[in-house]
Amino acid sequence: MVLHGLGTPGHSSAMTEQEFRVWLQKVDVNGDGRISRQELKDALRVIGMNCAWWKAWRAKKNADLNHNNYIDGEQEIKKLIQYAAERWGIVVRQ
């Protein structure tokens, strides 16, 4: 499944790790190179996730290693990918 289909009825939300990384770049709406909880919450709503505010909060809490309230840097992106795979089931490793 390609990213443009996310949130569209009839499309799966499963994606490869690379597709997830591309999706994360789109999640960064203001282009500051970091992902806020609000940006993540809005993106999760678009793909049809229930309780997006809670899922975004938990994901940020898990992946924000430097506690600056953003997902930024490669290590934090990797933690978010791992979290998404384990908790949301949307990342398919290939």
UniProtKB/TrEMBL annotation:
InterPro entries: EF-hand-dom_pair (IPR011992), EF_Hand_1_Ca_BS (IPR018247), EF_hand_dom (IPR002048)
Entry-linked PROSITE patterns: EF_HAND_1, EF_HAND_2
Naturally occurring in which organism (per UniProt): Cocos nucifera (Coconut palm)
Single GO MF annotation: calcium ion binding
Protein name: Calmodulin-1
Keyword Calcium carried by entry: yes
EF-hand domain residues: 15-50
Source organism superkingdom: Eukaryota
Keyword field contains Calcium: yes
UniProt keywords, alphabetically: Calcium
